[in-house]
Amino acid sequence: MAITYVDEKTNEVAATPATEKRSRKMPWESLSTKQVLFLTQQLQIMMHAGVPLTKTLETLKAQATTKYLRTLLERIEADVEQGKSLADALRPYEKDFGELMINMIAAGEASGRLDEVLEQLYLQMKKDNEIVSRVRGALIYPAIVVAAMFGIGTFMIVFVVPKLIGLFQEVKVSLPLPTRILIAMSDFFTHHGFIAATSITAFILLFAWTIRQPWGKKVWHTILLHSPVIGAIIKKVNVARFARTVSSFLKTDIPVVKTLETTAHVLGNVHYQNALIDASQKITKGITLGEALRPHKNLFNPTILQMISVGEQAGKLDDMLAEAANFYEAEVNQTMETLPSLLEPILMILLGFGVGGMAVAIILPLYTLTQAF
Fold first, then answer.
1. Residue 40: its pLDDT value, please?
2. Which of 131, 225, 341, 343 is least enclosed by beta carbons within 10 angstroms?
3. What keywords tag this UniProt record (predicted)?
4. What's the rounded mean pLDDT across residues 324-350?
5. Is residue 149 packed enough to be buried (19+ CB in 10 Å), middle (13-18) or exposed (0-12)?
6. pLDDT-derived band at 128, boundaries 50, 70, 90
């Protein structure tokens, strides 16, 4: 497949006030990933069978499981009946369907291969969702253990330790440093619980706000990339998504520049986003994709860079990136399978330090008390 490196301007339909007004939705209304996957699959099946687009949308509307989805499909169907393309009808709802889906559908309509593009899009979205699900699934166990640690610690500090304080005060036993620290923490949380809860809540909200800011997100993503274990997972996930998305776009003959600009929004890490934007700008000057990504060796390892270069030289970049995507997706799956066994010893050590330290702080004065008698 010949790859063009020429950027092409897309014709975008400006939203009229009426379109903007009717595309508004409540903050909690959105389409789930499963709903978008289902719609994409059904669109592909019906379009491949030769069912007209308006009839397809009407059928999907009848199968809609939520009011919001039904309303959305009604609006899209109305726009298509008025002469708009499917991509233009979806564009006001980009937050629901995503830039990737809309641009690939636009390319499919332009080339007359919409059913093929929808099939490629469905496979791309399905693979992407599988990666995200595996990552989330692997993190459930560590999250439960950490939550249990905090739960046990809070219970001990708020309910158990205060009862022991009275006993220690009655016998006037000399308290070791760990016990005094534990009592001070218990006293603070017991008598100043509102302040403690407010402070913790404020910290969480401040952290959430900070990582949403451009500068905060960049700092946070830098920390994650350089974190043990987590950093390697983030790199594999982003490279896999990059390879799969770019491969899907190139199979629909979308120019590389437009492909990279859209893919940048698909990736979750800001450093990968910036790397692709930088690469897209260099490609407009005649540089190949492999050369454009080479300065970002900290994000794209030599293996993927070599595969890109070979694919470009052979004129089969889309196929080579598909192979790379399969490779890195398998790497992610293997890492996710072994992650719990890697984290379990660390979590057990932390749990042992936490619970064990608390137990020592309680037992030491009791031991001193028994010795006194």
1. 92
2. 341
3. Cell inner membrane, Cell membrane, Membrane, Transmembrane, Transmembrane helix
4. 85
5. middle
6. confident
Tokens for 78?
A: 């109305």
Residue type for position 216: G
Residue type, 52: P
Whether residue 323 contacts residue 11, with contact meaning beta carbons closer than 8 Å, is answered with no
Among candidate residues 247, 258, 3, the one with its CA nearest the CA of residue 120: 247
Find tokens 């008025």 and name the residue. Answer: 82
Report percent pLDDT > 90 for the chain: 36
- For residue 267, give the amino acid letter: L
Over residues 171-196, the pLDDT tens digits come to 676 788 888 888 888 888 888 888 88
Estimate the crossing angle of helix 214-225 against helix 193-210, to 10 degrees. 90
| Residue whose tokens read 């454009």 | 292
Helix ranges (DSSP H) in the chain: 17-22, 33-48, 53-63, 67-81, 86-90, 94-97, 99-111, 114-155, 161-171, 177-191, 193-210, 214-225, 230-251, 256-266, 270-283, 289-293, 302-314, 317-372
Residue 72 CA, distance from chain mean position? 25
Q: How far apart are CA 231 and CA 191, in angstroms?
A: 41
Is the four-CA dihedral 349, 354, 360, 366 of positive or negative sign?
A: negative
Q: Which amino acid is at 1?
A: M
What are the phi and psi torsion angles at 27 (to 5°)?
Answer: -55, -30
pLDDT tens for each residue of 259-297 = 898 888 888 899 999 999 999 999 999 899 999 999 999
Q: Residue 21: which pLDDT band, with cuts at 50, 70 and 90?
A: very low
Concatenate the DSSP letters of all residues of 167-230 into one string: HHHHHTPPPPHHHHHHHHHHHHHHHSHHHHHHHHHHHHHHHHHHTTSHHHHHHHHHHHHTSTTH
CATH fold of 30-126 reads Receptor-associated Protein (1.20.81)
What's the pLDDT score for residue 175?
A: 80
| Residue type present at position 27 | P
CATH entry 3.40.50.1820 includes domain 133-373? no
Apex 53 CA angle, 48 and 55, nearest 5: 105
Residue 34 identity = K
